[in-house]
């Protein structure tokens, strides 16, 4: 795996230190890849995470949002089944925990299971006071109206 050096970006990006640190951390501590997932951007403010969770029932999955972190857990309960002896086991039957770092103002708006895929819908809601606004230069805007 390639190591990315974000050092040149620190000089031209102000206030993004945390973002670059998280990117470096995720590049070095890559998840094991289970379960596989997709992240889809549907438009500027809507996203969808799709996870392949075949073999898990709705009640075995737990989705939690804590501040800017989304945590998805899958727990398989032993049903009193006897230990199986596999000649080849290509289907992972194990518990998992997958964490996603969410940007500010992103929240989970829904989740659904369909054909072994867990879809988690996310939406970014920027507060009115955080949206861009026009700034008058040297009060010129005020003098012209008088």
TrEMBL record:
Belongs to the small heat shock protein (HSP20) family. The keyword Plastid does not apply. InterPro entries: A-crystallin/Hsp20_dom (IPR002068), ACD_IbpA/B (IPR037913), HSP20-like_chaperone (IPR008978). It comes from the Bacteria. This is Putative 16kDa heat shock protein A. CDD domains: ACD_IbpA-B_like (cd06470). PROSITE patterns: SHSP. It comes from Photobacterium gaetbulicola Gung47. The keyword rRNA-binding does not apply. Keywords: Stress response. Signal peptide: none annotated. Residues 28-140 form the SHSP domain.
């Amino acid at each position: 795996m390639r190591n990315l050096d974000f050092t040149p970006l620190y000089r031209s990006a102000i206030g993004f230190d945390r973002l670059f640190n998280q990117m470096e951390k995720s590049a070095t501590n890559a998840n094991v890849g289970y379960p596989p997932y997709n992240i889809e951007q549907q438009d500027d403010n809507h996203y969808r995470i799709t996870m392949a969770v075949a073999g898990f029932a709705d009640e075995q999955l737990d989705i939690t949002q804590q501040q800017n972190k989304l945590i998805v857990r899958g727990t398989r309960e032993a049903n009193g089944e006897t230990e199986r002896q596999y000649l080849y086991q290509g289907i992972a039957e194990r518990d998992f925990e997958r964490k996603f770092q969410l940007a500010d103002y992103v929240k989970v708006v829904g989740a659904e299971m369909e054909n072994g895929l867990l879809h988690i819908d996310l939406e970014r809601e920027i507060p009115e006071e955080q949206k861009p606004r026009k700034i008058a230069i040297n009060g010129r805007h005020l003098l012209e109206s008088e």
